Amino acid sequence: MRKAARGCNGIPGIWAMAPKLICPKCGNNAFRVDTNAAVGQELNGRQIVVSSPVMVCRKCGNQSLTTWQADELARLTKKAAGMQKR
Ligand SMILES: [Zn+2]
Questions:
Q1: Are 37 and 56 in contact (CB under 8 A)?
Q2: I want to staple 25 with a disulfide (CB 3.0 to 4.6 A). Which of 55, 62, 82, 84 is the partner?
């Protein structure tokens, strides 16, 4: 029997990877996870909106990214840019 990597169901160890996330806007440290937020990104001078997992401040709604979320966002942005070729 093969053992799969732990914590691979959907969001991998999200709190473990962001133990001290602080909202840059209001200093609050309570966040919820938005797994499908619309995030605007600029890539090569183009505005691209992608659906990406983010942390959302429970107090002011500001979006923050953990390290893996930033990686995921970069990946999704590049993918979306590739699909928007004209
Ligand atoms: Zn906040």
A1: yes
A2: 62
